[in-house]
Amino acid sequence: MTAITHSIHVFWSSSIGKKTVVAVTGLVFIGFLLAHLGGNMLLFAGEEAFNDYAKKIHSLGHGSVVWISRLVLLSSLILHVYATISLVRQNRAARPAYAFEADQRASKSSKIMIWSGLTVLAFIIFHILHFTVRTDPELAKIAKDSPYQMVIVGFQNWAVVIFYAVAMTLLCSHLSHGFSSVFQTLGFRSAKTRDLLDKAGKAYSGLILIGFLSIPIAVRIFGYGSN
Predict the structure, then answer these.
(1) What's the whole-model pTM score?
(2) CATH number for the 15-95+108-221 domain, one of 3.40.50.1820, 1.10.1040.50, 3.40.50.300, 1.20.1300.10?
(3) pLDDT at residue 37 is higher than 90
């Protein structure tokens, strides 16, 4: 075992190592969601603006930037989920009997983190299959001519809209708790910044929730984009 491999093993084996992995990958998702929301909001600027944005994104670096971003996100997702599950198992194994009462007092948000995270994971897989891989032949055909119309048609299905709304709500519950935890693990949370970070986490989560839900609501309920 080389020195680098040994250092990685020691880092990963420690609780702080896993927490750091969760925090760094969480920071990646925080940045990605904000950028992704900004791009999605162009849907309200009209078909031409949204299609031009989609074309530019997929042409960056002759398409390499999109694939690099996808690999980074996929790697971050795998590490985030695996490190979180490992931490939960490690904490349960190390928890003494008297810690049960303290565990009962944990916030509801903290206690459902793992379940909301797994639900969000299922949603991410579905969302990729739905809008990225486009396993639906109809959406795949539409996307070639207009990504804008692909989104409009994709949100005509009530089941998709409901699943999307539930998953986004759970994601933002996850974010609301995880936002401040990310900065705490990375050493940016103190007694002075605690309240500010907690408020920032709630504000960020609210922005993400309202922003992403505004699209299926506008399309399915108010008929936005329909001819």
Answers:
(1) 0.83
(2) 1.20.1300.10
(3) yes
